[in-house]
UniProtKB/TrEMBL annotation:
Domain RNase H type-1, first and last residues per copy: 341-433
Signal peptide bounds: none
The species this protein was found in: Rhizophagus irregularis
Domain of life: Eukaryota
Protein name (Swiss-Prot/TrEMBL): RNase H type-1 domain-containing protein
Pfam families from the UniProt entry: RNase_H
Alphabetized Gene3D superfamilies for the sequence: Ribonuclease H-like superfamily/Ribonuclease H
An example molecular function term from Gene Ontology annotations: nucleic acid binding
Amino acid sequence: MALSKTQTEALIISFRRIFKNKLKFACSAPNAILDNPYIYGYRDFYDNQLQAKIADFCIQLNNNGLLGKITEIHLKSLQDNNKFLTIKGGRIPLEDVVDNAYYSKHRERLREKNILFLDQIILDDKSRLLLWKEILVKAYVPISSQRKEAKWYTDIRLLITSNGVHLHYNITQLFGAFVANVDETRSYNIDKKNRSLIAFYNSQFNSVVIGKIQEIDDNQQLIVKHFHTNMSLCTDTHTYIYQCMDYGCAANAALSMRSPCTFSVNWRYLVPLLTESQFASIQPTNLIDFNIFDIFDFAKKKYNIIQRALTQSHVISLQLQDNIILDLLDPSISRNDLLGELLAVLLALIVVSKNSKVRINTDSLNVITQFEKLKKSKFSQTSHEYFKANNNFLLSILCRIIITLNLHVEMFKVTAHSDDVGNNYVDDLAKKAHLNQDRYIVFRHDASMMKVIPCWNGILIENKLRSFLKNICNYRGLERFINLNRNYKYRQLEVDWTSTFICLNCDINNINNNETSVSSSKTKAQKVHLLIEEIPTIEQMKKSLLNLYDEWMCPICGLHDETFNHVWTCSGHYTIINNIRDKTINHLLTWVLKYNDNIQNFNNLMALDIWDISYDPNNFTFIDLIKGIISISLSELLNSWTTKKNVVEVLIQMR
């Protein structure tokens, strides 16, 4: 059983209240300080449940034993019992063609009738609205539906029809815009090798080209006869075409002696218009029952769909070794060193003949270690082992290749950077390939032996699933904290959040001791109070005791409201804050010189905005440093003087 977000929130409210009370936080303190794992390390109940359920479900789906069979039976049982309702309608949701008032009023009734699409309530030719009795006989409408004309039907008839029956022109035009959807536009079937009349989009000239397939060779190369259109003879419902007889035509590639103008085209981009027999029937008139502008739309959208598929790595290239190969991959996706070494091993094994003995020399101890683990299990992985491993997708493919090709593989460790001739040659090839950013390779999703592989935003999850889900939840928690209104300024500026949270979580009095103590807890709570700008100012007290503190001003100057920023900029505090700033600068210089005494000029440090005692919504000031926010400019300057480890120690001392 899984609890909903609302149920888990109800369970956790009491804990949050106690947590805030013990650490002296006001009720107004944002829950984001708990959601952010880099502040208190709290793990959200709902997120933790989500991680466990998703990981366990993926293991169940891919299990090859009794657990997998039971899961499959349960899923099929749910489908057979109509737990998952499939509404067959169309491509245009009703909410896209009616106003908000109508949809809000009749949404529940439409759902009762299983009506979601405009296509469900209009005639097949998209010309008129179905009569009420015609709607009642539809399979998707429950039998118990009322016989009297419903209010939702009466209202929508007024909205989308011109005379109570026929659809408004703007409604009918919607179908012209959607008809070229990938599900409704036919694709050319290369296996049938039909000599169809086809159209395709020419991106160079932004035009449509019409032709008839004349020949298809064994390599699936299409030779197409070119046809022209005569726009003066075209109508709204017909297009006039005739064969091109010009040997000097720009489209002519002279691929056939049988026709004056022929060319070749990739069959994936084709939109079939007429079969060969249908084409023969129109030859006396040369008129096809298509609008030329619709043909252009069909062809262009088909072209865009195929191009998008290429970009998103959905187009399969040559099939080698039982379909285990290779798609295009977006070059923006980076890969770590181990992944690169493992990929090199896979590509080497793919081209090996069956039943071969293979020796692989590699300087990657990680690859050898992973290989030996798989070898002990006889190159078989359970679903539990798969989702517990990093680089699981490629390791699964490695197992499949070795088993499918019946290979005997041995790996040997060689010394890295030993000036070996073969090693240097391979490194040189790798460097040349690395400079070529145009093509990357990745295995198809079905190359693995797993039945169901989880993805995130269309990207394959190749690391430990539970750890990946945990990271996603952590990043969401961090986002919730950064997106607080009080942190608006820091979304515009460059903040070193890593150093900020390290300083927040480190107690200078307990720097070498990881034990939790009451004093460390209090120190951290004080830091968090500053970070979220919730210290006991008059304005803060007004949130809970307005009757008592109403109209109170700053107790020092008596001129302004005592807000968080005013505490540090109040004229009565100027001398104190100025002394604190000067001492901070002196201590910082002392700590930096401790690690690097060769620094002669500190002008760059003194020129930073962080020493300005004022409030500025567009720049860092000393107030931000008091809150514990570390700017990138400060971190980069300190890193130019000493090591990262020393910089962290300096920032902790300063904080």
